[in-house]
Design goal:
two-stranded parallel ribbon; 12% strand; two-stranded antiparallel sheet; alpha+beta; 95 residues
């Protein structure tokens, strides 16, 4: 695992229920503001209960995870308001 991957996972570990962030926000917090796509790749390989990966969406609020159905279900459990595959509330934190 690279240092960047470790930092991304540390950022994800800090996310709380109802807190939504963009891939770019995670990349910025992990020290590489232009690595949003890399964050997506890291999280795309993860779909387990060890980290709250489902709290990361596109900056425009869209859910694009390869595990979309599971992500929607987990966001709804967190109390997030959705319209299809788009987050309505709360706002997504962006860099």
């Amino acid at each position: 695992m690279t240092e960047f991957e470790r930092r991304v996972l540390a950022v994800i570990d800090e996310l709380q229920p109802g807190q939504l962030v963009s891939y770019g926000w995670v990349a910025s917090e992990a020290g590489k503001p232009r690595a949003a796509r890399a964050v997506g790749n890291i999280l795309g390989e993860m779909a387990d209960d060890t980290r709250p990966w489902w709290r990361v969406v596109q900056a425009n609020g869209r859910i694009v995870s390869p595990h979309r159905a599971e992500q929607r279900a987990r966001l709804l459990e967190d109390g997030v308001v959705l319209d299809g595959d788009r987050v309505l509330e709360p706002p997504v934190q962006r860099p």
